[in-house]
Amino acid sequence: MGNNRTISTFGDIVLGPGAVLQSVAGIVPTDTSTVNAGNVILQEGTTPGELRIQASMRLFVQGDLVMNGNNVAPSPGPAVFGGLTEPILGIFESAGGEIEGNVQINGIAQVTVESGSPPSPPGSARPAGPGGAELRIGGNFVNTSTRPDLFHLGNGTVILDGVTAVQTFEVAGRVLSTQAEMFANNFEIGNLRIEPGASVRFVDAFDNSLASAEQESQIVGQLFLSAGASVTVDAAGLVFVTCINQGVDVNEVNFGLFASISQLLTPSARWWSVVCLGLMMLSAGTIVLGRRRRFQRTKA
């Protein structure tokens, strides 16, 4: 599509194998092209479906954004499963995608929300809103990918603003030994905003890390919790470098973990986990069990 153009349909936009939707007229910083659709579906293929927006372009989806990559290799290396390549979604520079329904990754997909050069140090906040790439989600975020190497949101912004129902957000990262490790191919997000009136439940329903005994977490550079939002961390982790909290009381249920990276990496935190392990051997008290199993649990 050319600069400052509009593609609009009440139906679906399906980008099957070999189909690419992007600007081809030469990107300029003022390009305000828009794509409007009921649903957008990106398919795997030997040459996959690809949607790429950049400059000041906008994507508006009234329904769901679905990426289907069930026949893509589940781990880096030689392609198996028929040798197909993952569908691709790219949001770059100051572009924005607004999805009123769900964002659903079925199998493997490549997702990029990239504002510019990588942040330094890893996990430092990037600009949100105007001037930065962002993905706004009004429904659930469903992620069954096991390929964190294809998930590039460490330098972008995700905004959760569903106000008509509870949004569920699938966490997929791991709490590792250093901050740098947590922001390297770990399903990390640079900036995560939860808007006023939104109700979000972070869950760990799928084993994205392929480490079945380990509770997964969403790793965030800067977390912004707007006044009036509701946040629950349910049998999962929400771990951040910095948090701007406008009075939101975060609910931790079923051994959920809400903590800063500095809290988790301090010697006192590591010492406490060892003490809890010793106490667990002496007693099955629910408080001790709950505290310890925030760091590790066995999935059903």
Q: Give the domain tally.
A: 1
**How much helix, percentage-wise, in residues?**
10-25%
Q: What is the number of beta strands? A: 23
Tell me the Rg in angstroms.
20 Å
Write down the overall mean pLDDT: 83
Order of helices and strands: EEEEEEEEEEEEEEEEHEEEEEEEHHH
Low-confidence stretches: 270-298
Distance between the termini: 47 Å
The fraction of residues in strands falls at 35-45%
Tally of separate helices: 4
Shape, per Cα inertia axes = globular
Task: Give an account of the 3D structure.
This protein is mainly beta and 300 residues long. It has four helices and 23 strands. Strands 1, 3, 4, 6, 7, 9, 10, 12, 13, 15, 17, 19, 21 and 23 form a 14-stranded parallel β-sheet that branches. Strands 2-5-8-11-14 form a five-stranded parallel β-sheet, with no helix packed on it. It has a four-stranded parallel β-sheet with strand order 16-18-20-22, with no helix packed on it. Helix 3 crosses helix 4. The longest helix is centred in the last third of the chain and has 16 residues. The radius of gyration is 20 Å and the shape is globular. The termini are far apart. The C terminus is likely disordered.
Provide a brief overview of the structure:
This protein has helices at 179-182, 261-265, 267-282, 286-292; strands at residues 6-8, 12-15, 20-21, 34-37, 39-43, 50-53, 58-61, 65-69, 88-92, 96-99, 103-107, 110-114, 134-137, 141-143, 151-160, 167-170, 189-194, 199-203, 217-225, 230-234, 237-245, 251-253, 257-260. It has 300 residues and is mainly beta. The strands form three sheets. Strands 1, 3, 4, 6, 7, 9, 10, 12, 13, 15, 17, 19, 21 and 23 form a 14-stranded parallel β-sheet that branches.
